[in-house]
Amino acid sequence: MNLPKGAGRALAFALLVALVGAAFTLAEPRFLTQASLAGIARHMAANGLAALGLTFVVIVRKFDLSIGGVAAFSAMSMGAVIAAGMPLWVAVLVGIALGAALGAISGIAISRFGFPDIVTTIAVGSVCAGLAFLYTGGRSIFENFFQSGITDLNDARVLGLGVSLWFLLIAYGLAWLVMHRTRTGHAFYATGENPRAAHFSGIATSRFVALAYILCAIATVLAVLLILAESGNAETNKGANLMMPAYAGVFLGAAIMGGTSVLSTFAGILLITMLLDGFSLMGVPYYYSDGVVSLILLMGVIAFSDSARGWASSLRVLFPLRNPSSNSRERQV
């Protein structure tokens, strides 16, 4: 029976998720409890939003290492607005505006002026991390948090599911429609696959590279918003742990599903969040779980990189697989 294209990878991923879930359940029976699954959903929402933004950057074949710094600065900025007694929607708009501005700085520097993406985003992230201390000198901000209603994003439920999970599903649904059902999405992919050909086809490639960084920064801000809703305060380390799961989710999903896409990122971040929460529930120290995620990230990069595929192809050329039927015919001759 011939499976539809991609169905085999989807079935393999479903089997992998089932095996990971079964392993954690055997090791820690609380893994499949309602409280544990709710925690996975909350953490997946924050990690998933950061990974979704990063997906746009990876699709245009770039990297963004400013996620941690942007997260810290936007968290403290939104916290300062909330502490000043402003409505929650004002704080969210301020965070989104800051994220868009920071993403535009990185995107324009890289796409218009040809700055290297890794160096540029490290610099932007470092500046943002320093600016996060601007409001309180590094002290926590918690004034007016409970009165603002931000914690409802973490506690409220709709149709049995948390608001944060609905937020994630809606964001991924909209992103999927844009990337796979519009000319804008095709332009993103064309920019990453062959920027020169895309340019001569009439696509403003520099504009789409800049837009990818803007979307990544905005998604980071939204991810931090969910983290603030869960913790009930703003600190300079909020969002510091977003970058590693985001990269692991994007590249692991690409390796499993055969390419970078919105759905592959969703699959990768689901698996990564299950691993992180499972290790946490078992009491595994964070440095061990971070090491596992880093190893998974490395494996995903190796599996997804063009050089690794070229190396594998060269091995097949050097050591071709012989057809058993041809071997039998040779023996008969």
Short description:
The protein has helices at residues 7-27, 34-59, 67-83, 88-111, 117-131, 145-148, 152-155, 163-181, 183-193, 195-200, 205-231, 243-257, 262-281, 286-304, 306-318, 324-332; strands at 157-158, 161-162. By secondary structure, the protein is mainly alpha-helical. The chain is globular and about 55 Å long.
How would you sum up the global shape? Answer: globular
How large is the radius of gyration? 22 Å
Strand-and-helix sequence, N→C? HHHHHHHEEHHHHHHHHH
How many helical elements?
16
For the termini, the CA-CA separation is 35 Å
Q: Output mean pLDDT.
A: 86
Low-confidence stretches: 324-333
Biggest β-sheet description: 2 strands, antiparallel
Number of strands: 2
- Largest sheet, spatial ordering of strands: 1-2
* SS-based class: mainly alpha
Which range best describes the helical content: under 10%, 10-25%, 25-40%, 40-55%, 55-70% or over 70%? over 70%
β-strand amount: under 5%
Structure description:
A two-stranded antiparallel sheet has the order 1-2. It has 333 residues and is mostly helical. 75% of the residues lie in helices and 1% in strands. Helix 3 runs parallel beside helix 5, helix 4 (88-111) packs antiparallel against helix 11 (205-231) and helix 12 (243-257) packs across helix 13 (262-281). It has 16 helices and two strands. The chain has helices spanning 7-27, 34-59, 67-83, 88-111, 117-131, 145-148, 152-155, 163-181, 183-193, 195-200, 205-231, 243-257, 262-281, 286-304, 306-318, 324-332; strands spanning 157-158, 161-162. The model is unreliable at 324-333 (pLDDT under 50).
